[in-house]
Design a protein that fits this description.
By secondary structure, the protein is an alpha/beta fold. The protein contains 19 helices and twelve strands. The strands form three sheets. The protein has an eight-stranded parallel β-barrel, surrounded by seven helices. Helix 4 packs antiparallel against helix 6 and helix 12 runs parallel beside helix 13. Bound molecules: flavin mononucleotide and iron/sulfur cluster. Flavin mononucleotide binds next to strand 5, helix 17 and helix 19.
Length: about 475
């Protein structure tokens, strides 16, 4: 992963913890309305893919154990990981693209409801993404993947030569000469792995995304409602289809790219279709980026514009993330796919403890405050969720007091200690297992391995009932904690 060149090491410092009485009187542990329902507290566990679904995208026992463990801590809301809306094979990524996924998803909502005593509201993040392939072996790329065109023949002076001869000639070229012969996209397919973009409108399925996606998202949201979720979070963030439509890098010329109004068109159409499918008494919000954190990408000013439009359209919450794009991702190894959290924009999304002068804590707060202010100025009271390096009570309370956000997201801190909420609310803050922001968990995510936290995954491995990874080396959920009697 990319790291700021300053390489300043930070240590998590949560500041003072509240007594139970102070917590009870705090903003953080006070209720907030979010569309048609009320969260009991302003705490939120953002979506985190734990790589526990079955190979064909069903809820497994391990998925249920994972969310049940979080529910034990009773956060105000929790968002289930990015879940695919299409009925296409996507490896062990959770799916909601067909009714056959409903029984598993129902078991999941029931488990969370039971484990949290009904205190935690449960949303599911629904996602669309475009094709991405692994970085090919050089020879295979020239032998099989590259489509030979007249451009290659002309550049090599091999006008009528058979295709095999052109392939062999390309294979024999060294990298500098290849740079002259291949197009930038062909070079990218060779060095990074082929990746589709929303601007590839020469491909019919990409051209037709504006027609296909509203229905796909709406069907997925209807299933989420049927499965017993309290709402859906439309995934409009990071490296995926909807964020790519919103991005200033979207130059589509069909009315869905270019100026901001056009870039917002499909996200608003998707929202309208979803709302029509689920009705007004079901929470619908989105997660989107306060900044792309890329040269030429969206800035906070873009995000202010989109926030106002989303709020005006009637979204029930807006959850802000930042960065996490493919455009600046590092080069993957041969046989692996590019991962959108390996460049500078990835650092902004999941900052680690090795940082710059600002540090890893609260990098998204100033942008969130500006976006929230723009939405309030436009007359909307849509709740704003902010996340990124938040781990302390005092820090969370200050975010709410200063009006930087309305709800505080704790992703890795909740992974390090799913009982953060229970402990802090009960006056046991000193017992919190603090996240180090080491990104050990994120490295597991990158390899599509079951995500765990280094602070607890080797603890009490032989204790009764502890379930482990296939190699037996790591426990899959955090050790249990109960308040002292
Ligand atoms: C293992 C892992 C998986 C993640 N998966 C998702 C995801 O599915 N959807 C999403 O919007 N963000 C995802 N994120 C990003 C987090 O939701 C969050 O925005 C980020 O970790 C920064 O917040 P934090 O500092 O509180 O961890 C993931 C993060 C981690 C560590
Ligand atoms: S592995 Fe644990 S300590 Fe490290 S960043 Fe992830 S949650 Fe935090």
């Amino acid at each position: 992963m990319w790291r700021p060149p300053e390489r300043i090491a930070y240590k998590t410092n949560p500041g003072p913890w509240p007594s139970a009485a102070e917590a009870a009187a705090s903003r953080l542990f006070s209720p907030i309305a979010i569309g048609p329902l009320t969260l009991r507290q302003r705490t939120w566990v953002p979506a985190m893919v734990p790589w526990r679904a079955t190979e064909d995208g069903f809820v497994s026992d391990a998925v249920i154990d994972w969310y049940r463990r979080f529910a034990h801590g009773r956060p105000g809301a929790m968002v289930v990981e990015a879940t695919g809306i299409r009925d296409v094979p996507s490896g062990p990524l959770l799916r909601i693209g067909h009714d056959r996924f409903l029984p598993g998803l129902k078991s999941l909502t029931e488990a969370v409801r039971e484990a949290s005593g009904g205190e935690t509201k449960l949303f599911i993040q629904i996602i669309d993404f475009l094709a991405i392939r692994r970085r090919p072996e050089r020879d295979k790329y020239f032998d099989r993947f590259l489509q030979i065109t007249d451009r290659h023949r002309d550049a090599l002076g091999l006008g009528d030569a058979p295709e095999e001869a052109v392939r062999a000639a390309l294979k024999a070229l060294h990298d500098e000469a290849l740079a002259e012969v291949l197009t930038p996209r062909e070079r990218e397919a060779l060095t990074m792995g082929y990746r589709e973009r929303v601007t590839d409108t020469h491909l019919p399925h990409i051209r037709d995304l504006p027609q296909a996606l509203p229905g796909l998202f709406a069907d997925a949201a209807r299933r989420a409602r049927e499965a017993g979720f309290d709402g859906v979070e439309l995934h409009y963030a990071h490296a995926y289809t909807m964020a790519s439509f919103l991005s200033a890098l979207n130059t589509r010329r069909d009315g869905y790219g270019g100026p901001r109004e056009n870039r917002a068109r499909l996200p608003l159409a998707v929202y309208a279709a979803v709302r029509a499918a689920v009705g007004d008494d079901f929470v619908v919000g989105c997660r989107y980026l306060s900044e792309d954190c890329l040269a030429g990408g969206n800035t906070v000013a873009d995000a202010c514009y989109f926030g106002v439009e989303f709020a005006r359209a009637g979204m029930d919450f807006l959850s802000l993330s930042r960065g996490g794009k493919f455009e600046d991702a590092g080069q993957p190894k041969v046989g692996e796919a590019a991962y959108p959290y390996t460049g500078r924009s990835g650092y902004e999304c999941m900052p680690s403890y090795i940082s710059d002068a600002f540090g890893p804590f609260g990098r998204n707060l100033e942008p969130a405050a500006r976006i929230r202010a723009a939405i309030r100025q436009a007359g909307h009271d849509t709740p704003i969720v902010a996340a990124g390096g938040i781990h302390g009570f005092a820090q969370a309370e200050s975010i709410l007091r200063e009006g930087q956000a309305d709800i505080v997201g704790f992703a890795r801190q909740a992974l390090a200690d799913p009982d953060w909420f229970l402990k802090v609310r009960g006056g046991f803050g000193a017992e919190v297992r603090l996240c180090r922001y080491s990104n050990y968990c994120e490295a597991l995510d990158q390899k599509h391995k079951p995500v765990t936290c280094e602070l607890w995954d080797r603890e009490a491995l032989d204790a009764p009932g502890v379930k482990r990874t296939a190699d037996g080396k790591r426990r899959l959920t955090a050790p249990a904690w109960e308040p002292p009697a």
